[in-house]
Amino acid sequence: MPASVVPVLMYHHVSPTPGLITVSPAHFAAQMCWLKRHGYTTLTLDALAGFLAGEPVPAKSVVISFDDGYLDNWVYAHPVLEQYGLHAVLFLITRWLGEGPLRPHAGQGNTPLPACLSHHAGKTAIDAGQTDLVMMRWSEVLAARDAGTFEFHSHTHTHNRWDKIYPGDADNKSKALAHDLASSRNLLTERLGEVSSHLCWPQGYYDDDYIRVAEAAGFRHLYTTEPGVVGADSMASRLPRIVVKDRGLGWFAPRMWAYRQPALARWYLGRKSR
Ligand SMILES: [Zn+2]
């Protein structure tokens, strides 16, 4: 039986430094081990696009998505994905990626690991121009891609909320977003040799102008933060995702089971999460 729905899981940080949108390395490893042990297929976004176009995917299919491109994704998530042979997708804020050699990641013996800041401290560092302390480097992006642990897509170039910068000014908002998306596409093409049709909205915000501009720029699959599972009849321009909490298998396993069944998934995602 092929899948009738596919959950797109959403992560930000995987780090021992606690924070609002952070999953601990232990919980992340347990969640990934569970997916592996239960025979899940971690889909590429190409495969998800195929599913939306009517191609079958295995019954136990999931998309593991990350937003922004934090250093801790390389240090703590990459080695776990590699260990279990799982594949994730990462939506990059392309302007924030730095230059320089690979930094150590977990699982490399006693090599000291780079410090990973909390979400809050990371914001402060980025505002102070210390983006390299917080974000991945292009070398790490390429290494993760070559290892098959991550594939990379756009999360815009600047992560700016143009609707807030130009309130009530649809024309300038749309122009700024178009420029932002073009910059992101150009840089991804320059660095990775390709750019995809998949885009994730900063802070989950979008409106009709945003969708129009993104589609004109060449994006067809737009990822939101609205909770839900993706069905074959989902609109490509409004794909839902599911926040994964910093919780163990007692939280994760029943949800993964429910997300395979449309009615149960709605029940789980519709009620207030604990
Ligand atoms: Zn983001």
Automatic annotation (TrEMBL):
GO annotation, biological process: carbohydrate metabolic process
Annotated coiled-coil segments of the chain: none
Keyword Phosphoprotein: no
PROSITE patterns: NODB
InterPro entries referenced in this protein's UniProt entry, alphabetically: Glyco_hydro/deAcase_b/a-brl (IPR011330), NODB_dom (IPR002509), Polysacch_Deacetylase (IPR051398)
GO molecular function (one): hydrolase activity, acting on carbon-nitrogen (but not peptide) bonds
Transmembrane annotation, as ranges: none
Protein known as: Peptidoglycan/xylan/chitin deacetylase (PgdA/CDA1 family)
Native source organism of the sequence: Rivihabitans pingtungensis
